[in-house]
Structure formats: C-alpha cells, structure tokens
C-alpha cells in the first residue's frame, strides 16, 4: 500500500475524546455518563448528510472523517466533542499501518 501523507498543520481543531462509563445511582441501578479521556487536535472533514422522516419528526445525520495523531485506546463507541457538537466514533483505522495517524469515521446526530 502506498504511504499517505498528511500535513500536520491540518490538525487544528481541538476536540475532547470521551468514553462512556456507568456509574451507580442512589437506587441500586446504574446511569451512563461520559468522561473526558484526552484533548486532541484533529482534522474534521464532512463526508455526507442525510435526512430521514418518521414518526412525525425529521432526524438529521451527518458523517465526518476525523483524523488525529495515532494514540493507543481510541475505539468505536467513544466520541469526540467540540463545544455542543458530538461526533460518535463508528470506525477507527490506521490508514497506512505506520502508527502515525488514526482516521475515524464519525456520526453526528442533528437536534
């Protein structure tokens, strides 16, 4: 596979990497919450947008490609957050298997 090159200066969007955790509640059950694991610089590129109508409402979904420097532990099920925007990580891969960058495909739900 041909090596892909990325200008490191393109990683200029600051995002928080968050992981889902379960915490016990006062009634013997659990609640889900999000914990920030790291602050990263990323390149965020929009890929596609969809609009689906059902049950009397419209659901907007946008997909993005988020590129970050390679780091251990990023996986699907985590998310990136920037202010009020939340990008759920769907897939993670190392494009040229050199452990320089990770490319994450993400999904953003509209409100």
Q: Can you put this structure into words, describing what you see?
A:
There is one protein chain. The chain is mainly β and 111 residues long. It contains no helices and six strands. A six-stranded antiparallel β-barrel has the order 1-2-3-6-5-4. β4 (79-82) and β5 (85-93) form a beta hairpin. The mean pLDDT is 90.
Indicate the structural class: mainly beta
Number of helical segments with 4 or more residues: 0
Assembly state: single chain
In sequence order, what are the helices and strands, one letter per element?
EEEEEE
**CA distance, first residue to last residue:** 40 Å
Mean pLDDT: 90
Strand content: over 45%
Side by side, the strands of the main sheet go 1-2-3-6-5-4
Q: Uncertain spans, ≥5 residues at pLDDT below 50?
A: none
Radius of gyration: 16 Å
SSE map:
Elements: E1 13-24, E2 30-54, E3 57-69, E4 79-82, E5 85-93, E6 101-109
Brief description of this entry?
The chain contains no helices and six strands.
Comma- or semicolon-separated keywords:
single chain, 111 residues, mainly beta, 6-stranded antiparallel β-barrel, 6 strands, 0% helix
